Amino acid sequence: MLLELKDVTLLYGRIQALHGISLTVGEGEIVALIGANGAGKTTTMKAISGLRPVAQGSVLFDGDDITKMRADLRVVRGVSQSPEGRGIFPGMTVRENLEMGAYTRRNRAEINEDMDRVFTLFPRLKEREKQVGGTMSGGEQQMLAVGRALMSRPKLLLLDEPSMGLAPMLIQQIFDIIVEINQQGTTVLLVEQNAQQALSRAHRAYVLETGRIVKEGTGQDLLTDPAVKDAYLGVA
Ligand code: ATP
After folding, report:
1. Fewer CB under 10 Å: which end of the chain, C or N?
2. CATH-assigned architecture of domain 3-78+154-233
3. pTM for this prediction
């Protein structure tokens, strides 16, 4: 397993956001986390990227226990998060934002290679290379956030709501790109409100409810599960 969470609990002060989350992500997989608002999806991502300490349980990555590892060192190890709400650097150009994604790396040739790869995946970013990030459209900023996360050449790419705020055409496109990134060898863990798209593209998925995993299965199984359909797919 590339990633394994064992019985992870996480607190925000006195609020317990995660109640013993256990999940795995195998090398080469796309795994989706779905669930209602406040279910704990973003919090689970934070436990993995190290943006928030876990109270109990463990996070194993690529053979190591990273439960207490600093967030920046996890990036060096190969975990990269594209945050919810984009979180790009608004005052920097597109190229500078992408450079920031590679700040832990030193090999210029490889960085340039990855920059080219990001520009191939997202031609719009190439066209807007010198534009200031904050003036890009919402969808373009979303692409920039994903591109920046790729610039650390991660083994595991964590995507928090990559389709948020995107027009229907762009939603298809961003999911196509996620599949392409995965086929090029990057493992993906995806948090999504858009359960239909997420489940149809993911190999496996977990359903979260109030900080607990209540269901898991292949994307296809969950797509046809009556309870999942009812609660998350908007069809009875
Ligand atoms: P959404 O789909 O709305 O983004 P989510 O499943 O990602 O939801 P989380 O953001 O993980 O949900 O939140 C899980 C729970 O933890 C929620 O009840 C939320 O209010 C709470 N929470 C999140 N961040 C904090 C914080 N910084 N302080 C206190 N409570 C928090």
Report:
1. C
2. 3-Layer(aba) Sandwich (3.40)
3. 0.92
